[in-house]
Amino acid sequence: MEKVKFFDTTLRDGEQSPGCSMSADEKLTLAKQLERLGVNTIEAGFAASSPGDFESVREIGRQITNSTVVSLCRASKNDIDSAIEALSDAKNWGIHTFISTSDLHMKHKLQMEPKDVKAMAVAAVERAKKATDNVEFSPEDATRSDPEFLVEVLSETVRAGATILNIPDTVGYTTPDEMFDLITRLRNEVYNADKVTFSVHCHNDLGLGVANSLAAVRAGARQIECTINGIGERAGNASLEELVMALKTRQEYFGFESDIVTEQLFPSSKLLSKITGVDVQPNKAIVGANAFAHEAGIHQHGVLKNPLTYEIMTPQSVGIKSSSLVMGKHSGRFALGERIKELGFDLNDIDLNHIFKEFKRLADLKKQVFDEDIEALVTHGIGKQTDKYSLEDLIVTSGTTAVPTATISMKIDGEVFKKASFGDGPVDAALNTIKEITGIQCTLTSYVVKAITGGTDAQGEVSVGVEKDGVRITGRGAHTDIVVASALAFLNALNRLAIRSKGLSPSTVSYTPLTLPPICRLYISADARP
Fold this sequence. Notes:
Blueprint: E1 5-8, H1 24-37, E2 41-45, H2 51-63, E3 68-74, H3 77-87, E4 93-100, H4 103-110, H5 114-129, E5 135-140, H6 147-160, E6 164-169, H7 176-189, E7 197-202, H8 209-219, E8 223-226, H9 240-249, H10 251-254, H11 265-276, H12 297-305, H13 333-342, H14 352-365, H15 371-379, E9 389-397, E10 405-412, E11 415-422, H16 426-438, E12 443-451, E13 460-468, E14 471-479, H17 482-501
Parallel strand pairs: 1-2, 1-8, 2-3, 3-4, 4-5, 5-6, 6-7, 7-8
Antiparallel strand pairs: 9-10, 10-11, 12-13, 13-14
Helix pairs in contact: 1-2, 1-11, 2-3, 5-6, 7-8, 16-17
């Protein structure tokens, strides 16, 4: 059966989503997971965009061996030379170069004539071809380009040495029927079309990214460019997990297979969410919290009789594990390690001693530790601790007649500071105190609280959006105490702001989400406000 290749651009296009920037260590961690997932190509970044991106692309190229690693480049000498230098030590690598071809882009963005655009495209491919046989060319805004000019440019880049032709729906404008017709025309009219691979890169502005990608495959495209969780510019890209499972679940209809290890889809989705602080919506296909959840009595009855009544794929097939194993304070290190492996994580990337210590502390607070609790401990503990701000102690008093007050002890670059402050509620008081200690004046743009599991002893996970001087950052924290989780999430965001304030790209600095503090106390009445 013929294969469709998957080109993952989570680390490049996905990272361009507001609030989804990643450090170099986080990118490498995700790249290793993408390799375990089985993606054929990883677009590691834009090597010429910054020194941090250059080093990140270089390190990913050095450590990834099974997947091909590529860097995106504009059709310019400097971009291509920078990418070649960054990937020169990689085992499997390539160059992906692009230039706009639509009249709108050429006139208003490039301010260039079509003949000059074509010349730049050819020159870029020729330059890349001198260093590697793996050269991909993309005519940006292809679906709004003149088809005749598109055929002309693509034909010339094939003559120059391009082996992959990517057709981007850059602004998510086209429809499935139009995409099918365009790919069909290009395969019929482009020079030596039968000797190159056609690829598609579909954005989701009209919610058609996955549908357009599948239409392109039916028309002859054999590579899909996509992202985990569908993240990316504006409304995002076509979702990798949806594309993979559509091809697998409806294999009789599409007639293709892939190299993707589908059991790694859910772990990949969860890892990305933890790294970026951006959750998928509960009803997200394949990896959403409700994707395999059944609440209605009729559905529950049907699933108990035969899962096929309401499930067209098994949760296990995408890496969602169903287990009766109860994890608690009597569980040992070996059992915890086995459970972490069952959840799809690689123990080689995890400090099990640290996770086990935090697990035991959490188990003392909860009657039962659920899979989601373990995932939170693992993903919040990846990497080395390099935070500028860390929480030491938190005491909150609040009630119907008392003025909400927070007393906080925290470290800034290893030095301990302590202060008390007031607020409209215990969370507000805690965050106000942190602001006074750090001296950082910023705006809280969002505040979201959710329970990681069910039960009154569940860990609460808080996500906060913070804006300072036009920079927006998302922070996250998890704890059985919501006030503590809120403080952790706020400090998580401030640590990211601290990186930005030094004038550094997040890709140049190793960063790890806050782990739980050793001592946190809460004194609060039942009538207190949030």
